[in-house]
Write a structure and sequence with these properties.
The protein is an alpha/beta fold and 262 residues long. 37% of the residues lie in helices and 23% in strands. The protein is built from 10 helices and 10 strands. The strands form 2 sheets. It has a 6-stranded mixed beta sheet with strand order 6-7-8-3-9-10, sandwiched between helices. Strands 2-1-4-5 form a 4-stranded antiparallel beta sheet, with helices on one face. A hairpin with a 2-residue loop joins β1 and β2. The protein is globular and about 55 Å long. The two termini are 18 Å apart.
Length: 262
Amino acid sequence: MGQLPDKEPSALAMSGVTLALGGRPVLRGIDLVIPPGTLVALVGSSGAGKTSLLRLINRMVQPGEGTIRIAGEDIAGVDAETLRRGIGYAVQGGGLFPHWTVADNIAAVPWLMGWDKPRRQARAAALMELVELPLHLADRFPRELSGGQASRVGLARALAVSPRLLLLDEPFGALDPETRTALADRLVALHRAQGLTTILVTHDLVDALLRADLMLVLDAGTIVAAGPPAQVAADPHPAVQALVAGPLAQAQALHGLGAELK
């Protein structure tokens, strides 16, 4: 397995991490170091453990063994609510509160942190502009939004308090290809402009190959390949090749014959 580069201080480091749910092993011996500012694509077949890995980082489940450190700090010693306020988290469809307006959804974490209403409104408006969401939607409810708009709201909410980590679990997975590409482009631009460290769970292998700095391939709860996309694409592990063979050809075609991946 390829080794991720180790730069100090790392944005995220996991050592010997395991997870079992209902007595069933889900993650096994996860060792991982992610440098600050990295865009990571987390890929693997259904049930490989991708969402569970994000949930571990966000203290939504607890590891059986091992340590998880964010910016050098063991998260086991951090209050869970405090930890989550420093981590942006977005899921497919945005995961929005249905009876809250767009502005209130975006400002949910600032509300929990006790920001006053004018400050929350100003932050929501700034984030709507950042994710290219029309300001006239601020008073709409999630049921009144398109899928792409709801995904932009979810992304804005994840960015509300300048997170140390941005965790994205298939945030654009249910969208049409054109909308998904536009949002992925916007995500990459925001990631670069704001110096974020982002972990993106995706089933879009072409997107992962073309956009990520680093790829992680999970198979049966184990990281079987890790590194720059070109390195991972060349990994002979059967689980890796089963995932990337077709998407690699498509990614190379999009870039033109002979084009190099990262």
